[in-house]
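ingest -> validate -> predict -> emit
validate: passed (alphabet ok, no gaps, 734 aa)
predict: started
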Amino acid sequence: MRHPSASLLYDPATRRIIVANIAAEALYGRTRDALATMTLDDLHPPDQHERLRAELGEMECTSETRWLRTVQWRQDGERLEVEWLTQSMEIDGRPVRRAALRDVTGRERAEALFRGVAEQSFTGIYVLQDNRFVYANPRLADMFGYTVAELVAHPGPLRTLESGDRAEARFTLEARHRDGRAIVVEVHTSTIVLGGRNALLGTVLDVTDRVASERALEASERHFRAAFDQAMTGMSLTAPDGRWLRVNPALCEMLGYSAEEMTALSFQEMTHPEDLGRNLALRDALFAGDIPGYRMEKRFVHREGGLVWAALNVSLMRSETGEPLYMLAQMTDITARKRAERALDESETQLRHAQKMEAVGRLAGGVAHDFNNLLTVIGSNAEMGAELARQGRVASEEFAEIRSAVERAAALTRQLLAFSRRQVLAPVPLSLNLLVGHAERMLRRLIGEDVTLETSLDERVGQVVADQGQLEQVLMNLVVNARDAMPEGGHVVITTTREPDDQVALSVSDTGVGMDPDIQLRAFEPFFTTKAPGKGTGLGLSTVYGIAQQSGGDVGIRSFPGTGTTVTLRLPHHRAPAAATEAPTLASEPTRADGARGETILLVEDEAAVRTVVRRILSRAGFQVLEAGHGGEALSHWAAHRNQIALVLTDAVMPVMGGLELSTRLRESGGGVPVLFMSGYADGERGGEIPVGADLIGKPFTASALVQRVASLLAHAPTPAAMAQGSHASILEG
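emit:
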């Protein structure tokens, strides 16, 4: 069997292939012998078998000759689109059918690809053949407000496109949307061959918005010209060489010239000589394309000879080839602002002085509190010493306590003078550890009692060469910054370490709010501060940086938001021995209260010296005393001895837990024990710690005043046993 196209003969009863030609071998990728052992079903995927049998059965019932299209597959599994024409024949009286085969896979794929692209295109596409629209894609239909089916069946809206029925044309026209509004479209046409005949392929773009924008631009240019002339700020168009091309009335009024006078001059002639060089450099950078525009503040010379400060915003208009055409400048008169800034600069020193006085006031408040503690020790010991003298006894311990307190007061005064002195830099060998030790008590007063201060001093640190007053200033600034970063209280650690590169490090760490990287980059800038207005000058860390540089060292920050900050000062180590110091000691003894029955009093005071003298006063008055250094320790005593404790005597402000929180916790535990607060602050400086109406004894107090106050409260309070049984609700909170 020879035929130029693929063909085969098959038995219509069994659909078994009898013979195939060479072209069929190429089509199916099988030999003719292999094909002769197969049925038509074998050439089709299983999902095609039912349809194949129905089609063949219908065809074989008639003598009709027609094309049939099915999906078949090759030996290698590739799917084929095959059209075949079957025809009845007889060979030796036996009925057979001849099938002529045509592979249309490529055509189907090309048509599918075209339709896929056209259906997804954002451009309208149509095909016009024999004056009939044979195809329109969804975008074109949507452009005119119709469905594809409506548009192909009734192409009236597309008739305007027929004006472009010539090949390779491009034109713009106005068409009509289904809703009646006008749309502007841009059409490109080209010739294609479709079914052996020429057709016109057209692509359509909706340019309605673009045309509207062009018209709006024209209107905008008219508006710009009006806005230019009517603007309240100065505006100008300036040639590349600096000549004024056009100026508005506001600029003329600002500089005192008429428009005609200005257009006869250049901006160079009217700019202050000290500002001209910077102005020309910016203009040159603008022309070179290094910057898109520039802003600057400069001085113009007024027509009457005065100076006018102006803030300029300058951009460059270029031609289509990129050549500079003119500069557009907006100019605002800032002369009044510059005068105000100058006046503000002149008052800066006075403002910083006021802020320093405010800081001194806060320091003085803390020092006053500490002096009240010392006065309490002195006054109480003096009174107890006098009582012992009346009894003929020696008051040596009381007088030793008084002497120690006086020494501590003198040391405090000396430290205040050291922090406030102004002197020429006088570097001397000194021990960082001794410096921290001497300053520790002062720093505790400075940070307040709601912040704990801890020191960790490396014995290997040795000495550095620096000005003692300056290093004390560094330490104070760092600790104050740490305190301010912990508005709710917290923990400060001062550390000294010996580093391997023969340097000594002094670090101050806090548990405060921390700093993000942007703030850390600016932390050492003078006057930069994150504190609220009036709460800081922004000079603390910049002062630390300056002192570090003067002393031959450096300073660094390690901080993360929410985890605290560590600031470290590093100085060269000085090889020389350091001296040792001695710490002062305190001691004392008191009087007895009439009617004391040996009641147990829980004494809570973080200042060891005050706690010692108060314990002695109470003990000698006949009371049993349990001591605690802070609220947490007091709660432990309360849990173990609540049935014996008749009264709680507590300081108001303490680290870890203050007196107010302690009294609240005692009340919540169900205890009705009376609470007497001690405070070294004036009534107006209680800081919200002690509520109005609470029992309070102010520092300094005398031994007799304390004993009488305690006895008075106990006289009206139930016994611990009664409180335990009835949970008497007479807690006095702070």
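Residues 335-390 form the longest helix (56 residues).
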